[in-house]
Specification:
Elements lengths: L22 H12 L3 H22 L2 E3 L6 H13 L7 E5 L6 E4 L5 E5 H4 L4 H16 L3 H12 L12 H27 L2 H13 L8 H12 L4 H11 L7 H13 L2 H6 L14 H23 L1 H23 L9
Parallel strand pairs: 2-4
Antiparallel strand pairs: 1-2, 3-4
Helix pairs in contact: 1-7, 1-13, 2-6, 3-5, 5-7, 5-8, 6-7, 7-8, 7-11, 7-14, 8-11, 9-11, 13-14
Length: about 350
């Protein structure tokens, strides 16, 4: 397949992440920002030094990518930063890891890390998708919460922390948000490579662990449709509780979300230059977005409860208890010194 190089793609001047954000991401982010003191809690996690340890764990055996080190990968990275009109070109590293993953890390000075296992399975187009996905996280200002979640995943929940922080509750809240944030970054990747099918192809590689030339994209897209249209309510609920502990939505769901977004016409609208800019973000009504978040998640869980009845209500109550634990902790320290910036 002939693919357009990033240096030949026109940028989106001043594009705001709000131009393409998935509704679940917008709702979840608004809900997080509406919780008093949560940002302070997250910043306290980072202040305790775990971000620094996390960065060191990534960088211990990593190779810095640049003009003289994996120059094609570096050209793709600088290209997607230009296309998304980023204020900086962020450090990029490839690190030894057989598993296929990549990450944007660091709430202060973000950087992008790609595993060698993933790099070796991707063609040039898919590499650009992965890089654009991670740069999309930076553009969407996901880094503060992402860094906190990475800290909570990296350290044992049994480890004692100061000021009685309810780590399990915080991690559950951030996991729910992170899965939504992934859907927005898939859209950013589609914009940066100007071809949603390359995004779907990359997700197929991530799902199967094989190079794209050994797989059938049309068959995988049909599989995504089959998964979405699965009718059995109990299976959908079982799927829900399987996914609730994951950092990323399942690959087939992500493919279907990209296709739904393209079919909605929003992708083509942005291509025509009709999109919200960062200058317009100053007028955003955060309270209104938080209100939308409440209804978005209320309706989501309401459907689950209706399908499963009393058994699911018990599990829902347990989840609500974890959320109340977090809320009680925050309210008890509502005016205290949290160390936030």
């Amino acid at each position: 397949m002939t693919e357009t190089l990033p240096e030949n793609i026109e940028p989106y001047p001043g594009i705001s992440s709000k131009a393409y954000e998935h509704p679940a991401d917008r709702a979840a982010t608004a809900a997080l920002k509406a919780v008093p003191m949560l940002d302070t809690v997250v910043r306290k996690l980072i202040e305790w030094g775990y971000e620094r340890a996390l960065r060191q764990s990534f960088l211990g055996n990593a190779v810095r990518v640049g003009e003289t080190q994996l120059p094609d990968l570096w050209a793709s990275h600088t290209g997607v930063c230009r296309i998304l009109d980023m204020p900086d070109v962020y450090d990029l590293y490839v690190t030894w890891a057989p598993l296929g993953n990549a990450a944007a890390i660091g709430a202060g000075k973000p950087m992008v890390v790609m595993s060698s296992g993933l790099y070796g399975k991707l063609g040039p187009g898919e590499q650009r998708v992965v890089l654009a996905h991670e740069v999309g996280h930076i553009l969407s200002d996901h880094m503060l919460y992402m860094t906190a979640l990475n800290i909570l995943i990296a350290v044992p929940l049994s480890m004692p922390f100061p000021i009685g922080l309810p780590l399990r509750a915080v991690r559950a809240v951030l996991l729910e948000w992170y899965r939504a944030a992934e859907l927005s970054s898939d859209r950013a990747a589609a914009l940066a490579v100007r071809d949603p099918r390359i995004v779907c192809r990359t997700l197929m590689v991530l799902g199967g662990g094989l190079p794209a030339d050994k797989l059938n994209l049309d068959a995988f897209m049909a599989q995504a449709l089959e998964y979405e249209e699965w009718d059995d309510p109990s299976d959908r609920v079982r799927r829900f509780f399987y996914e609730i502990g994951l950092t990323h939505p399942l690959a087939v769901r992500r493919v279907r979300e990209v296709l739904n977004w393209v079919q909605s016409g929003d992708y083509d609208r942005i291509q025509r230059g009709e999109y919200r800019t960062r200058e317009q973000d100053a007028g955003a009504n955060v309270r209104a977005e938080a209100g939308d978040a409440v209804e978005f998640y209320a309706e989501r869980f309401r459907r689950i409860f209706q399908e499963m009845g009393e058994n699911i209500t018990t599990l829902g109550s347990q989840a609500a208890g974890a959320a109340e634990q977090l809320a009680d902790w925050i309210r008890a320290r509502g005016g205290g010194g949290g160390g936030g910036e």
